[in-house]
Specification:
The protein is of the alpha/beta class and 296 residues long. The protein folds into two domains: 4-112 and 183-212 and 268-292, Rossmann fold (3-Layer(aba) Sandwich); 120-178, Orthogonal Bundle (Histone, subunit A), CATH 1.10.20. 50% of the residues lie in helices and 9% in strands. It contains 13 helices and six strands. A six-stranded parallel sheet has the order 3-2-4-1-5-6, sandwiched between helices. Helix 3 (74-88) packs across helix 4 (102-110) and helix 9 packs across helix 12 (252-275). The longest helix has 24 residues, at 252-275.
């Protein structure tokens, strides 16, 4: 039987994790996490990390494996995921990949283009600018260097924003022009599903999950790590708003409502990305995906 990777992606809070666990359990296989924040430990609330019951139900790879100070990339994810898949396929004809980090999913499915090395002095200069002038200045810098990539990238993920600035300057050309669009052939079949509830349902799920994160200790988690807020691993929706509350820049309920709003913005950006990919199979419910896979 042909080896098959089942990718469960979709906007944040759509229910991907529970669906992926159910599918992996039914197929007696494991899950590779394709989430650029869940790869870190110590921030399980803000990243909506897999629960203890989910971790007990099936084996999860690449979840909670890094300390906050470490850097991770789509290129490293591609290499790690391919290595793990090689081992998983020795035991099963199936593997499940779950996550909403669009560039990670693309890296696994299509491969990555070779990119120029960024000289250490250039990287140091850009990071110094970032520290001195902040996130907004880096976003403006990217807009000037590469408006096409600016329209696509997750602007809340400052590592990607800054990396695109570095590569554009190192290459002397927009980062988007370095992306060929050529796909690397993989020795396995890929089924890429986007779990995409209707907008009202999705936004209600986002609001509900935000309130659950608050109840589960989001503020305490933010207070534990605020001293490391300069790290890319902590530059994420949920923590950033809590940091602003702790700083006294907004009251608590305003911070919570801002998390909901910014999460909705991110979800819409994810959907825009997925809709550009003709290989994505869109389904509104977990049941529809399981039925398509013959699991109902």
């Amino acid at each position: 039987m042909e080896k098959t990777v089942i990718i469960i992606t979709g906007p944040t809070a759509s229910g991907k994790s529970a669906l992926a666990v159910d599918i992996a359990r039914r197929l007696s296989t494991g899950i590779i996490s394709a989430d650029s924040r869940q790869v870190y430990r110590d921030i399980p609330v803000s990243t909506a990390a897999p629960t203890a019951s989910q971790l007990a139900a099936v084996r999860h790879h690449l979840a909670g494996m890094l300390c906050l100070e470490e850097n991770y990339s789509a290129a490293r994810f591609e290499a790690d995921a391919l290595r793990i898949l090689d081992g998983m396929f020795r035991e099963s004809d199936y593997a499940v990949v779950c996550g909403g980090s669009m560039m990670y999913v693309d890296a696994l499915c299509n491969g990555l283009d070779p990119l120029p090395d960024v000289p250490a002095e250039l990287r140091a200069r850009i990071h110094d600018e970032w520290r001195r002038y902040g996130d907004a200045a880096m976003r403006i810098r990217l807009l000037g260097l590469d408006p096409e990539w600016y329209s696509k990238v997750d602007l809340f993920n400052m590592k990607r924003v800054v990396h695109a600035v570095e590569l554009s300057l190192a290459a002397g050309a927009p980062y988007s022009s370095l992306i060929s669009g050529r796909r690397t052939e993989r020795p396995f079949r890929i089924l890429k599903y986007c779990l995409c509830p209707d907008r009202a349902t999705l936004f209600a799920r986002i609001d509900s999950r935000t309130e659950r994160m608050v109840a589960d200790g989001l503020e305490d988690e933010a207070r534990r790590v605020i001293g490391m807020r300069h790290l890319n691993s902590l530059n994420t929706v949920g923590l950033k708003e809590m940091f602003s509350y702790i700083d006294g820049d907004m009251d608590f309920r305003t911070a919570v409502e801002r998390i909901k709003k910014n999460t909705r913005v991110y979800a819409k950006k994810q959907l825009t990305w997925y809709r550009r990919d003709p290989s994505v199979i869109f389904k509104e419910s977990a049941e529809a995906i399981k039925k398509d896979l013959g699991l109902l």
